[in-house]
């Protein structure tokens, strides 16, 4: 039985790794028996992430355009809301975008 909510942090949906990380965290929370607490945001640190990747010589971790970022954001909201409906998660959705609300 799910006994408590554990916040795992903020999911920046401009990052290509966000979908797999969120799914991993959801699977883990179900396996361990706690509700996943998640905050989904479109993203706030895109330029810093790009500069860091370039300076350290690794692949740019950010979606190449706004459309893909928006797609990730909306898809992750749908995924997490299914978990909320099943009482396996709680979520905070952060957006300044009227379309997303």
Q: Which key terms come to mind for this protein?
A:
single chain, 101 residues, alpha/beta, 3-stranded parallel β-sheet, globular
Question: Could you outline the blueprint of secondary structure elements for this entry?
Answer:
Layout: E1 5-12, H1 18-32, E2 35-41, H2 46-56, H3 66-85, E3 89-94
Parallel strand pairs: 1-2, 2-3
Helix pairs in contact: 1-3
Short description:
By secondary structure, the chain is α/β, with parallel strands linked by helices.
Describe this structure in words.
This protein has 101 residues and is of the alpha/beta class. Helices cover 46% and strands 21% of the residues. It is built from 3 helices and 3 strands; from the N terminus they run E-H-E-H-H-E. It has helices at 18-32, 46-56, 66-85; strands at 5-12, 35-41, 89-94. It has a 3-stranded parallel β-sheet with strand order 1-2-3, covered by helices on one side. The longest helix has 20 residues, at 66-85. The mean pLDDT is 87.
């Amino acid at each position: 039985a799910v006994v408590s909510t554990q916040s795992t942090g903020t999911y920046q949906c401009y990052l290509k790794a966000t979908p797999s990380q969120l799914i991993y965290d959801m699977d883990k929370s179900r396996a361990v028996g706690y509700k996943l607490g998640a905050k989904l945001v479109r993203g706030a640190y895109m330029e810093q992430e790009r500069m860091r990747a370039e300076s350290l010589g690794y692949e740019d971790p950010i979606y190449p355009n706004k459309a893909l970022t928006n797609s990730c954001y909306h898809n992750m909201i749908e995924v997490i809301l299914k978990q909320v409906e099943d009482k396996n998660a709680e979520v905070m959705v952060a957006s300044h975008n009227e379309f997303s609300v």
